[in-house]
Description:
The protein is of the alpha/beta class. A hairpin with a 3-residue loop joins strand 2 (about 110-115) and strand 3 (about 120). Helix 1 (about 10-20) packs antiparallel against helix 3 (about 35-45) and helix 1 (about 10-20) packs across helix 9 (about 290-310). Strands 1, 10, 11, 12, 13, 14, 15, 16 and 17 form a 9-stranded mixed beta sheet that branches. An 8-stranded mixed beta sheet has the order 3-2-9-5-6-7-8-4, with helices on both faces. The chain folds into 2 domains: about 5-100 and about 255-415, 3-Layer(aba) Sandwich (Aminopeptidase); about 105-250, Glucose Oxidase, domain 1, CATH 3.50.30.30. The chain contains 12 helices and 17 strands. It binds 2-acetamido-2-deoxy-beta-D-glucopyranose (3 copies) and zinc ion. One 2-acetamido-2-deoxy-beta-D-glucopyranose binds near residues 46, 385 and 386. This is Carboxypeptidase Q. One of its GO terms (biological process) is peptide catabolic process. Keywords: Carboxypeptidase, Endoplasmic reticulum, Glycoprotein, Golgi apparatus, Hydrolase, Lysosome, Metal-binding, Metalloprotease, Protease, Secreted, Signal, Zinc, Zymogen.
Amino acid sequence: MMGIKPDLLCWHVVFFLYFCLSLASDIATEIADYADVAKRIIDLAVFGAAQNRSYRRLADFTDTIGNRVSGSENLNMAIKYMYNAMTQDGLDVHLEPVKIPHWVRGKESAVMIVPRVKNLAILGLGSSVGTPPEGIEAEVLVVQSFEELKHRASEATGKIVVFNQPFVSYGETVAYRAYGASEAAKVGAVATLIRSITPFSINSPHTGWQDYQDGVKRIPTACITVEDAELMWRLSKRGQKIMIRVTMAAKTFPDADSFNTVAEIKGWQHPEQVVLLSGHLDSWDVGQGAMDDGGGAMISWEVLSLIKDLGLRPRRTLRTVLWTAEEQGGVGAQQYYNLHKVNISNFDLVMESDLGTFRPEALQFTGSDAARKVMEEVVKLLAPINMTKLETHGEGTDISPWMQAGVPGQGTEKHCST
Ligand SMILES: *[C@@H]1O[C@H](CO)[C@@H](O)[C@H](O)[C@H]1NC(C)=O
Ligand SMILES: *[C@@H]1O[C@H](CO)[C@@H](O)[C@H](O)[C@H]1NC(C)=O
Ligand SMILES: *[C@@H]1O[C@H](CO)[C@@H](O)[C@H](O)[C@H]1NC(C)=O
Ligand SMILES: [Zn+2]
């Protein structure tokens, strides 16, 4: 994957502008009057003293802390790190307690033993149960869809079900990772190995969250590589018997104490009104969590830094929330919503960056026609960074409770993929 382009984080500008506006009748004129302010923010972020700052912050954060899985000591360290860093930056920071899942991967391995011996690269899925210490050894049933599993239900008893579903899109194909274990358990499988949810693989399994259904036996579940899933599919098409031994020491502990990390600059005119921007501090346990979602967290902080550095005072409160336990299903965000929805009429816009932080192409926005009219004017101010497109479908796990309740939402921008 390409590196981050820290010089082009137009979010800063959009966030601030949206929220400077007092919605006068001649919106277009009023917004155009902010061209100057927009230019100052862009100059500072892209060409000035703050050039590359969010990248340097991200590098220091990930180099210092490393990965930050829900319930881990690293995640606690990450929260302390950000609390201190944003406080030193002169921002108004506080922590809001949340109970979060605590799952530990433990040692894990898998080996194909029939028709030939081959080690399989696996990554257990978050919340998976482990196997007995000696592992589970069983014959394999390879299927390409839930449909096929249904048709071949009678063949699944006592087997390890391997899902070799083709990749369509993350949003669609992720159902196999999320529900594969319970679907296979319903027809008597003893474990599941699921092709990683990705269009590319260099013998690289992915991890992620999975959901056990209530009342269904919990069986161990892990992702395998695209290559190994296809290998076993080809073998099974030829009628060859496949045996695998999978060993996983995964364990779930009681819920752990954690926090959403909140920093803000109070609005001078409408301090009770909030424009919320966000990313999540937790990550999975097998990478650095730089893309997912260190970048989103750092640019959400950088917005406040830029406003402060320029001595700008927003009309409404500009609030950055760094969520905890997003990967476990938006646990921190859900709790934040439950606690603060009493003030929902004061939330003007909620934003999230959790799809990587590259060179932006467009803003994705969901809201009323009136709100869209405002955003259409705001993006015009982003001409200096060549990003004036406004698209539909603002979305994100952590802001979805607000958006479902009708608050305008802005997801990640679209990014160049090359
Ligand atoms: C920012 O990063 C770019 C690309 O790596 C580099 O050319 C530029 O000199 C950096 N600027 C600063 C102030 O570090
Ligand atoms: C709701 O908003 C009021 C006014 O800004 C504030 O004092 C109060 O703390 C808020 N309540 C919650 C739960 O956020
Ligand atoms: C915007 O596009 C113009 C023309 O392609 C280019 O010269 C300029 O460097 C771009 N600006 C930024 C900030 O990327
Ligand atoms: Zn994420």
